[in-house]
Backbone:
């Protein structure tokens, strides 16, 4: 019997990824958060028009906020459209929020958005990394490791 292939779920889809974050920061831990969005923002995200590259997360008055993320206006929304770079509230449990607050305050960490996606239920989620900034030498080290992995894969592929 042949194994059945699962069809790709249209709800479960990556909208935006901050690839630069893993290069600039050493990510210690990740937290999945929900987002408070307007209807036109959800429609725009379904089309895949978002950017979280320059954004960051912050905790103010016991609430988690996503700052400077860009979700393009939805063309069909006309007068009911949203602001492109507004602050968006993130939803996390009190325990996760306390853990993030402690990491930021004590250990000099920062909250970096890594991925924006729709989960299996079709809800917009944001993966936030609790990270520490890398120095130039650390970035060089990461690049050397990446190059070595590529060379190693190439050698194994060619010799087999």
Residues:
């Amino acid at each position: 019997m042949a194994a059945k292939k699962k069809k790709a779920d249209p709800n479960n889809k990556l909208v935006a990824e901050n690839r630069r974050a893993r290069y600039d920061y050493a990510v210690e831990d990740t937290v999945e958060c929900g987002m408070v969005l307007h209807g036109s923002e959800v429609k725009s995200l379904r089309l895949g028009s978002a950017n979280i590259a320059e954004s960051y997360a912050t905790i103010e008055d016991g609430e988690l906020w996503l700052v400077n993320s860009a979700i393009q206006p939805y063309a069909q929304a006309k007068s009911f459209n949203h602001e492109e770079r507004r602050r968006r509230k993130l939803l996390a449990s009190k325990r996760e929020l306390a853990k993030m607050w402690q990491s930021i305050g004590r250990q000099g960490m920062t909250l970096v958005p890594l991925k924006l996606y729709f989960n299996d239920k079709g809800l917009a989620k944001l993966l936030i990394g609790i990270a520490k900034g890398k120095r130039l030498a650390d970035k060089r080290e990461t690049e050397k490791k990446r190059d070595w992995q590529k060379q190693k894969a190439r050698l194994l592929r060619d010799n087999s």
The helical segments are 19-24, 39-46, 94-107, 136-159.
